[in-house]
């Protein structure tokens, strides 16, 4: 960037260049006109001699003396007929030359007797001054004799004048720059002292502007001193307000992101970085596109930059199912984002809706059975036996017990979906836990003729919620017991196996049975609420009373512990794999 000193020096130099340029233009015109005028008179005389010679000697005689005329005149001579065809030329072969009827000097000579032109020759690639004269050949034909003079003298004069002018110009510019630089330094020395003081103030030093001898500069120095004092006070206030605002924004329970007009980050608090899963610090100037976990958020930015205010809710399954509410607003310098974590609120609301919908649907069946039994007892004939009445009363009690189990299962599902994952987790030995589950299930009513086997390592440490994991594994084993008993009935041969193996960073727990198995079409919906699989594993004689919540509960327990539950294809029955993190 040019300083004021350099601008002044360049301005003086530009004035000098302009003055010399105007002088050069005037000199160019005078020299050019003089040389052209002198050359034109000489060509006029030469052309008159050529026309006389051509009239007396004829074309053939003229052509014989053409070389002699070229040496005498020291110029170019051309003979053109009335149709523009070149009959003779001292420098080129006439047969290879273009038609000259369109040449301005030839046209002027044919129409007015004489013609002149100063132009560039495309034939010889030189500038010429042309003079043409109309002549009569043999008293019948008309032709044009043209002489041309190369402007070498004019070019030489121009070159000499230009060289002298450039030499004078360089000397003058050097003297002016040297003199002007010294003069400008002298004039600007007081301002340099003011600039030096301003630079120290900009760096945070407390200095005063120097006193000047010149009245104008003295007033400037005093005004700058007053402005400096006011600026220091204002900066202190701004610094204090900025620190207060930063502390307030940092302590907010919501995320705050401020962008400039170029969609670069100006400020981001820690809550926003956590909600957007940004790793490391975010320096000012970072493009916001690097931090957006969802492409739809970019549309919110563009809408805000156009002046709109908008709020949206974003579901981000790639961020552990996080749900964020983002409100955007256009500011004077960019866009302001306020980010609210709605994950917990969404989870609780979804849990409430699912609970109400599922419970209302599943309560309908036992309530209908209770109502039917009660209506029958109310309207039963007197001859109904006590044994028959007892059967209906037992049905009412059984349906009530099923409703109680349903309520317990639904409450457990609701609790798991509303509580944070891994709450109350503790270190446990999965080998001991599987052995305890197997012992507990051996006392199940359906397990009397079924072998429950375990294959576990000596020790399998993991951090889990022991009660919930036991419930999940018990559901899997009891589910297998029901359907193995359904297949074998009162016969022996049924088997349920629990196998524990280490698999990388997980423990793999296999629950296998030799029951009727599960069809591939049913497998995708096994872990949904109130889904009981296909007909072969639904409410039969031994599975009577199930609501399809056991596998759903087991799935959610394992997912919330950092693992998962899978159905694996098997040729001998059903096979489930529960994966539990080792840490």
Automatic annotation (TrEMBL):
Protein name, UniProt field: histidine kinase
GO function terms (MF aspect): phosphorelay response regulator activity; phosphorelay sensor kinase activity; protein kinase activator activity
The HAMP domain, residue ranges: 185-236
Cross-referenced InterPro entries: BphY/WalK/GraS-like, HAMP_dom, HATPase_C_sf, HATPase_dom, His_kinase_dom, HisK_dim/P_dom, HisK_dim/P_sf, PAS-like_dom_sf
One of the protein's GO biological processes: regulation of DNA-templated transcription
Assigned keywords, A-Z: Kinase, Membrane, Phosphoprotein, Transferase, Transmembrane, Transmembrane helix, Two-component regulatory system
Membrane spanning residue stretches: 165-188
Catalytic reaction equation(s): ATP + protein L-histidine = ADP + protein N-phospho-L-histidine
Cellular component terms (Gene Ontology): membrane
EC number: 2.7.13.3
Leading EC class: transferase
Pfam family, one: HATPase_c
UniProt cross-references to SUPFAM superfamilies, sorted A to Z: ATPase domain of HSP90 chaperone/DNA topoisomerase II/histidine kinase, Homodimeric domain of signal transducing histidine kinase, PYP-like sensor domain (PAS domain)
PROSITE patterns recorded: HAMP, HIS_KIN
UniProt entry tagged with the keyword Transmembrane: yes
Domain Histidine kinase: 358-583
Highest classification ranks of the organism: Bacteria, Thermotogati, Synergistota, Synergistia, Synergistales
The keyword Phosphoprotein belongs to this UniProt entry's keyword annotation: yes
Cellular localization per UniProt: Membrane
